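testing teh design pipeline on a random one, pls ignore if ur not involved
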């Protein structure tokens, strides 16, 4: 019974996750290239389906690995570049001491 419930939960939430990726791809093509939103959405869906169908799950896993490596590098580099642009920790502490209200 637990396997069935777990499977249903995975299907529902993975469908929502995939849908959000297609929607964001459609919006990307709309804003970056001036294409119609629906055309961009269909294009992204076609690319994902084509790549998965011909490359298989191994190809998808490899691209996921490289995306993870890129995110890890960005996670390390962003604070370093931010501190360099803030001229060190002094500016960071000055701004933190201001207790800005949003």
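output:
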């Amino acid at each position: 019974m637990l396997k069935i419930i777990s499977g249903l939960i995975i299907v529902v939430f993975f469908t929502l996750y995939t849908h959000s990726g297609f929607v964001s791809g459609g919006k990307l093509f709309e804003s970056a290239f001036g294409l119609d939103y629906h055309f961009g959405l269909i294009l992204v869906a076609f690319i994902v389906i084509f790549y998965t169908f011909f490359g298989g799950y191994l190809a998808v896993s490899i691209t996921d690995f490289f995306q993870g490596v890129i995110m890890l590098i960005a996670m390390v580099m962003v604070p370093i570049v931010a501190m360099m642009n803030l001229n060190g920790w002094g500016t960071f502490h000055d701004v933190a001491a201001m207790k800005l209200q949003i």
